[in-house]
Amino acid sequence: LDLVNTLERGAPAAAGEPRDHLADPPALLGWARRVGLVDDREARAVADSWERDPGSAQAALAAVREVREALHVALLAAMGVEPSGAGALERLRERWAAALARSRLTLEPGRASVARLVVGTAPATLIADRAAVGAVEVLRGAELVRLRRCPPDAGGCGWVFLDRSRNGSRRWCRMADCGTTVKARRLTERRRAARAG
Predict the structure, then answer these.
(1) Quick one: 102 exposed, middle or buried, by C-beta within 10 A (0-12, 13-18, 19+)?
(2) Residues 64, 6: contact at Cβ < 8 Å?
(3) Cα 193 vs. chain centroid, distance in angstroms?
(4) String of DSSP letters for 9-29
């Protein structure tokens, strides 16, 4: 879900475009390190690969953005906000299949699981491949009944989150952010209306 929320989908910025936290390949690499998609060694290999071939950096950024948008549409469809996620699922399946084609299976004797799938064997496509596999894992394993969207029509940011509250009634992504901001705005509007009245 962190990938889906790298694009601010709430109220548009001053320029009218939503802020994209994956604005360029260095931002993508920084995000991938921050969320643990790559470790330091892998990040250096990715950076070196992208420096040698800047076109591969742009291709990786485009692929991750495609995965992000397809996952977003699929999640909204799962919540009943979008009518159908079929096209999005097909795009995710294509990216997932390509990522698996570039992966390898390794034996790990003595562990609970004998084999492990190593996704991201080519540094240039490592982040995009892991994002695609992670997106499919979210769809296959997330508690989609607890999936919520911070309501952009009520002043929220539009982020998608899992509601882990006991009664399942959480409305805002974070009360400290969107919830407090919206409540403060409503209070100010009520006070202004009372003074004007």
Answers:
(1) middle
(2) no
(3) 39
(4) -SS--TTSS--BS--SHHHHH
Q: State the burial class of residue 149 (Cβ atoms within 10 Å of its Cβ: 0-12, 13-18, 19+).
A: buried
Dihedral sign computed on CA atoms, order 94, 96, 98, 101: negative
**Residue 160, phi-psi category: left (phi > 0), alpha (psi -120 to 50), beta (remainder):** beta
Radius of gyration, alpha carbons of the chain = 20
**How many Cβ atoms are within 10 Å of 57's Cβ, its own excluded?**
22
Q: Which of 165, 166, 148 minimizes the C-alpha distance to 157?
A: 148
Output the DSSP codes for 147-163.
EEE--GGGT----EEE-
pLDDT tens digit string along 6-64?
A: 998 875 555 567 889 999 999 999 999 999 999 999 999 999 999 999 999 999 999 99
CA atoms 181, 70, 58, 96: torsion sign? positive
- Write the burial class of residue 74 (CB in 10 Å: 0-12 exposed, 13-18 middle, 19+ buried): buried
> Is the pLDDT at 141 greater than 90, yes or no?
no
CB atoms within 10 A of CB 196: 6
Return the DSSP state at 172: S
Q: What is the spatial distance between Cα 93 and Cα 70, in angstroms, rounded to a whole number? A: 10
Of 132, 131, 133, 164, which Cα lies nearest the Cα of 148? Answer: 164
